[in-house]
Amino acid sequence: MTSRERILCAIELGTPDRVPVTPWGFGRIPEDSELGRRLLYECDPFISAGVAGGDWFLGTAVKTRTEERDGKSYNVIEAPGRDLYSRWQRTEITSAQMEFYCKTADDVEALLALPYEPPRIDTSGFLARKDEVGEEGLVGAGLTNPGGIPARYLSPEDYSLLWMDNREVFVELCEVAAERCYHWVEECCRQGVDCFRIIGGEFASTQLGPEGFRETMLRFDRPMVEIMHEHGALAHYHNHGPMGRFLEMIAEIGVDSLDPLEGPPWGDTTLAECKQRIGDRVCLLGNLDDMEVIEKVDGETIEQLAAECIEAAGPGGYLLGGTTSGTNTERAAENFLRMVDVSKRMA
User: Fold this and answer.
1) Per-residue confidence (pLDDT) for residue 272, from 0 to 100
2) Is 250:278 a contact under the CB 8 Å cutoff?
3) Cβ neighbours of residue 73 under 8 Å, at least 6 residues apart?
4) Which of 18, 284, 287, 307 has the fewest CB atoms within 10 Å, i.e. is most exposed?
5) Which of 316, 310, 306 is nearest to 338 (CA)?
6) Cβ(242)–Cβ(268) below 8 Å
7) If you ran DSSP here, which 8-state letter would residue 36 be given?
8) According to the model, what pLDDT value does residue 22 have?
9) Which domains does the chain possess?
10) Which phi and psi (to 5°) does residue 197 adopt?
């Protein structure tokens, strides 16, 4: 099989010629380097490609600016009756959002009062990337789900407090986001996008609990996935953290595949348990942590761990991979290649 055929077979809960070894893109490895080419041609990567046209939630009518205050740079949304401020801080390694646009329910109401014009969707870049990758991997478009939009505009603390103190406004934000998201997904599918990587679920699973996950993720993600499936597109779900209380709800959403399924101490379920509970409905991807396992252990250890994963979740309906962080470097790349050897031996 080609890598694309191998991945699709597993996602469809079939048994491919061998278990796919699926890194999330190339990590920090230059794609045009020798090691990058080996990752592409020897592994079975899941590769991200963007859709141009603008932010599907904010649209194109919103007015923004940047502003310098006290030696700090802010992004500003010009909302009715008030400006909404956000600030990022960057280091040589990463970046983090230090201040979020919305601090109160009134800020969320101002966000919802913004004029909205949907973006002009352009999938030509996605289609070009898909043609470029060809049979060497699976290309997907990234998508923050409707329930994940509150976490884009509220800090983790304010996100949780709004859910507890003003749930009506929280849900209204999700409802507006869902309407806009469904339109975006529909048009992307019409223009040829055939795979989506959905992020955002972990905000509810780690902060709101099962009730919150059901009301903000299951409620709005299931219709979104139905739209994807109506057009023959795949829905891949990315959800970090302890998943023991949420596996069945994710299966109920109807997604085709799920990652990263962290094992203890980062998560609370084993790969074998995930397979037993939802493996007949959802293809599993994981569960070797990119940075704490694949990036650190020696070759002999990674081969043993890879074999254990295949025994626990394979040979069908499983993609052997990590936590899809995209931050791994050369050592992890070499270990992904070692996992391919294990997959071939166990085929």
Assistant:
1) 96
2) yes
3) 66, 67, 87
4) 307
5) 306
6) yes
7) H
8) 97
9) 3-59+117-346 (3.20.20.210), 62-115 (no CATH)
10) -110, 110
23-to-42, 52, 217, 326 alpha-carbon distances in Å: 11, 24, 26, 8
Torsions phi, psi of 69, nearest 5?
-145, 130
Among 183, 55, 66, smallest CA distance to 114 is for: 55
- The tokens describing 271, both together, are 């790969």
Instruction: Record the pTM.
Output: 0.95
Distance separating alpha carbons of residues 267 and 106, to the nearest angstrom = 35
Task: Calculate the alpha carbon distances from 63 to 129, 290, 324, 345 in Å.
Answer: 31, 39, 34, 57
Provide the 3-class DSSP secondary structure of residue 111.
helix
Strands 234-239 and 257-260: parallel
3-state secondary structure of 90: strand
When pLDDT is averaged across residues 252-265 and rounded to a whole number, the result is 94
